[in-house]
Amino acid sequence: MLGICRGRRKFLAASLTVLFVPAITWIYLFAGNFEDGKPVSLSPLESQPHSPRYMASSQRERENLEVRMREVEEENRVLRKQLSLAQSRSPSHHRGNHSKTYSMEEGTGDSESLRAGIVAGNSSECGQQPAVEKCETIHVAIVCAGYNASRDVVTLVKSVLFHRRNPLHFHLIADAIAKQILATLFQTWMVPAVRIDFYDADELKSEVSWIPNKHYSGIYGLMKLVLTKTLPSNLERVIVLDTDITFATDIAELWAVFHKFKGQQVLGLVENQSDWYLGNLWKNHRPWPALGRGYNTGVILLLLDKLRKMKWEQMWRLTAERELMSMLSTSLADQDIFNAVIKQNPFLVYQLPCFWNVQLSDHTRSEQCYRDVSDLKVIHWNSPKKLRVKNKHVEFFRNLYLTFLEYDGNLLRRELFGCPSEADVNSENLQKQLSELDEDDLCYEFRRERFTVHRTHLYFLHYEYEPASDNTDVTLVAQLSMDRLQMLEAICKHWEGPISLALYLSDAEAQQFLRYAQGSEVLMSRHNVGYHIVYKEGQFYPVNLLRNVAMKHISTPYMFLSDIDFLPMYGLYEYLRKSIIQLDLANTKKALIVPAFETLRYRLSFPKSKAELLSMLDMGTLFTFRYHVWTKGHAPTNFAKWRTATTPYRVEWEADFEPYVVVRKDCPEYDRRFVGFGWNKVAHIMELDAQEYEFTVLPNAYMIHMPHAPSFDITKFRSNKQYRICLKTLKEEFQQDMSRHYGFAALKYLTAENNS
């Protein structure tokens, strides 16, 4: 709006000037014959046309008049030109939602102009605005490695997607960990008009590993130097971003700045806003060479085609080799080398206005880059302190960052109308499956949930575990929502082995979980727990999808399929590993049953042995699980036999059997059609039986269910008749599918169901 007002004022001023300047000129010239407002009287000698004084005076006046006329004509010419330009540009100030042109602030080529720009703030210039076509693809490159950086990338991408109106192509230079996390995330995010390509960062290590680097980013902090070699040879330009960037505007505005590059300018950078490269931060501070304050590489515009022609690879290598002879190592990773190259070749850089990289590290001049909230373009958290950095307006910046951090990513699945999207096989298959459903079916929502694609962020926290070399290792698998978070510490205390958890959370809840986990000494001391966030969508709790996600991402050959409300007995991890060897689980199809018990007490002195548990069972402190509500679920375990058993014993499958079992990792997945409450485990155990798994009860193992408030889904099951009808329908359809898949052997499930 400010740009519009200024444009109108300039247009009006130019118009008035052209109209009144000629009149003012002649008044001025006429007034030249007056003195103090009165006509100047000429002596009779001066009035005579042929007198010497008259002729000399007339000649001077004609010369003065001609000079002044030429000046006035030149001023008019300039004003007419400005008026013409103002008229041709004025429509661009009235862009609507369908405009193809984005305003673009002037960059500068020198620090003196930058200082003038800082004073002027973020006001739009009246220069010609290069167009960014509506469907032009914007290319963005990001280097990402590890678990924490993957979380940062998501926040950065959210801020870009929130403002964008163009197709995006992300080029992610990622290590194996980040690739696994982000590939799954974007595949399940399914954002229209967004393409992702990965480049193996581990293969690039040899290109930069010879450079000693003291920066906390490590070897990955040097990889922006090799983008000309890494990215496709037909890619001409790219915006390069650090992972700790937050966008506050449409990235197309930054993309448009490429049109401002002239001559040999191939790098678009913002001046460094700290005194680092001035070398006066402390005594004996000796930074790498830089032009003035140097440049920050958190945001870079790269003209790749020109850089390749200039032999950029050779240029930066020679510079780095020369400087390392005296500097020995880099302090700010790639930024030091970029600045050393620019110091020798200042013509390479196009200096961006500083609001394209407002740097929030300590002791920066970032506050000079903006006068108002609307001035902000890009915020850069380039301090190891991140959100705890010192800045007069840090609270505002932090809130802006947290807004994107907790923003529902599902809302960013917006179509770009008018822009053709690339064919996506997964999306097309999903649409086909959904179109085959009958929306008038009373169980439509249940059926639809089976095909819902939930955005999934694997390994939300750091994970580090190497399975035992004896091939007996087992992972505890469970799923939970926010209301069961309090169980995590207790489970970690009871189970020392690896754990794989799928958490069903919103974006905001995921951040609450992160703060909870980071504040827990118990959880932070465990690196063998994989936390996989499945983001909320739809009205049902996708319990079996969550189990499948947790099952799929284990690194051990065996898994213990549990629930988050159960505490395993102390020492169960080691006991299961011994049982796996004893019962030859590697070469047989067995499902080892861990008997389940429950307590109604919130405070329980957990039994440390089977004898202690039996005593508590006799005293009524413990019960067999769900014996008073759902006896059939665990009756086949045969608790009477278990009381005295000293060796494993086999039990047969019965209708509605749903024990907790240890199986090989190649066991079948849970059936996704069952959501919320009811039959989710029963169907899985039925399929294990159909695949001829042998159910074996472990005599010295047990787990105890801890009390909690009823879940929302069980409340719906009990109160909603249609819910129960749909569950019954899904059960019948599952049994029919079993019969078709397993043939005659599956008929017993129909018979057992009818007799139960």
TrEMBL record:
Domain of life the protein comes from: Eukaryota
UniProt-annotated stretches for the region Disordered: 43-62, 83-109
GO MF assignments: glucuronosyltransferase activity; xylosyltransferase activity
Topological category with respect to the lipid bilayer: Single-pass type II membrane protein
Gene Ontology CC, one term: Golgi membrane
Keywords in alphabetical order: Glycoprotein, Glycosyltransferase, Golgi apparatus, Membrane, Multifunctional enzyme, Signal-anchor, Transferase, Transmembrane, Transmembrane helix
Transmembrane segments: 12-31
Pfam families per the UniProt record, alphabetical: Glyco_transf_49 (PF13896), Glyco_transf_8 (PF01501)
Compartment(s) of residence: Golgi apparatus membrane
Annotated catalysed reactions: 3-O-[beta-D-GlcA-(1->3)-beta-D-Xyl-(1->4)-Rib-ol-P-Rib-ol-P-3-beta-D-GalNAc-(1->3)-beta-D-GlcNAc-(1->4)-(O-6-P-alpha-D-Man)]-Thr-[protein] + UDP-alpha-D-xylose = 3-O-[alpha-D-Xyl-(1->3)-beta-D-GlcA-(1->4)-beta-D-Xyl-(1->4)-Rib-ol-P-Rib-ol-P-3-beta-D-GalNAc-(1->3)-beta-D-GlcNAc-(1->4)-(O-6-P-alpha-D-Man)]-Thr-[protein] + UDP + H(+); 3-O-{(1->[3)-alpha-D-Xyl-(1->3)-beta-D-GlcA-(1->](n)-4)-beta-D-Xyl-(1->4)-Rib-ol-P-Rib-ol-P-3-beta-D-GalNAc-(1->3)-beta-D-GlcNAc-(1->4)-O-6-P-alpha-D-Man}-L-Thr-[protein] + UDP-alpha-D-glucuronate = 3-O-{beta-D-GlcA-(1->[3)-alpha-D-Xyl-(1->3)-beta-D-GlcA-(1->](n)-4)-beta-D-Xyl-(1->4)-Rib-ol-P-Rib-ol-P-3-beta-D-GalNAc-(1->3)-beta-D-GlcNAc-(1->4)-O-6-P-alpha-D-Man}-L-Thr-[protein] + UDP + H(+); 3-O-{beta-D-GlcA-(1->[3)-alpha-D-Xyl-(1->3)-beta-D-GlcA-(1->](n)-4)-beta-D-Xyl-(1->4)-Rib-ol-P-Rib-ol-P-3-beta-D-GalNAc-(1->3)-beta-D-GlcNAc-(1->4)-O-6-P-alpha-D-Man}-L-Thr-[protein] + UDP-alpha-D-xylose = 3-O-{(1->[3)-alpha-D-Xyl-(1->3)-beta-D-GlcA-(1->](n+1)-4)-beta-D-Xyl-(1->4)-Rib-ol-P-Rib-ol-P-3-beta-D-GalNAc-(1->3)-beta-D-GlcNAc-(1->4)-O-6-P-alpha-D-Man}-L-Thr-[protein] + UDP + H(+)
Biological-process GO terms, alphabetical: protein O-linked glycosylation via mannose
Protein name, entry field: LARG1 glucuronyltransferase
Source organism of this protein record: Ardeotis kori
